[in-house]
Amino acid sequence: MSFSMQVKDEVARLPLRLDCCQRAELAAFAQVVGIVRLGKQRVLVMTTELPAVARRIFLLSKNLGWNGVIVVRRYSRPRHRRLFTVQVPLEQQKHFLLQELGFVDSDLMLRDSLDSRILKKDCCKKAFLRGCFLGCGFLGKPSRAYHLELFLKTHEAAIEVTETLACFGLLPICRERRGGHEVYLKEADQVSEFLRIIEANQGVLQFENCRVLKDMRNQVNRLVNCETANLEKAVEAGLKQVAVIKEIDSLAGLGILRPPLREVAELRLQYPGASLAELGKLLSPPLSKSGVNHRFREIYRIADQLRKEQ
């Protein structure tokens, strides 16, 4: 099971609480996965591949006084899968479901956005986002990338979700995609906060564990790369110094060097891969890295003079 499916399974099993929150969550399901089927009886049909989500939709409608049924359809192509549809008649006991969920006004005219009373409280906003994630959300595997997206069918729905996320300090990106609109979060802190908002506590723990391991691995890689680069730089500098010392030896002999310079030159020939700090510790008395570097600059100057004299 993918990480996204694991989190959805956890969230779908959260207890149902206040009626206002249940109404907001069911409104989210109706908005992102629902269609109205016309016929002898108008029915709201909400479809999902996850049995836990279908069960939650059914319980939400039942708790709010709306009788529905779950229908399971099996498909063999393009791949073997099951689709669960929750079918709820729109008119029951002289009430109209879309009006209860805030999609139409008192004159049964379709609204551009949900009735503001549906998302009045913070707890209802969280329930609305929970329903959106369960219905149309995708969460990338945190060990690979930090990515959470919600796919909405209409521009108005995308704006509503974006504004609801902004109420909790989240800054999603919204873009048009073929067939709808995508609202997504890319930063690790934002994704983690979203999971906290929808109460995916186990998902947060798993996400943060992966995040810590990933950060530690990246830090180790940076340190290793840095050490490797420093080592390569030290070896390259050492080979260059060895070449200059051998050039001096072939032109005039190392005897022309003052004793301190000759000492460091002979050590370099003996330890071509050692760093300047390591060479400094081998000198008698020991010398700092900058002191060793100063002696090599003097050796380079002597080598330049010998070349000019040839």
TrEMBL record:
Coiled-coil annotated spans: none
Gene3D superfamilies reported in the protein's UniProt record: Homing endonucleases (3.10.28.10)
Its lineage opens with: Bacteria, Bacillati, Bacillota, Clostridia, Thermoanaerobacterales
Name of the protein: Probable cell division protein WhiA
Which parts of the sequence belong to the Sporulation transcription regulator WhiA N-terminal domain? Answer: 19-103
Report whether DNA-binding shows up as a keyword of the record.
yes
Which GO terms fall under biological process for this protein?
cell division; regulation of sporulation
For this UniProt entry, the molecular function terms from Gene Ontology, in alphabetical order, are: DNA binding
The protein's matches in SUPFAM superfamilies, at most eight in alphabetical order, are given as:
Homing endonucleases
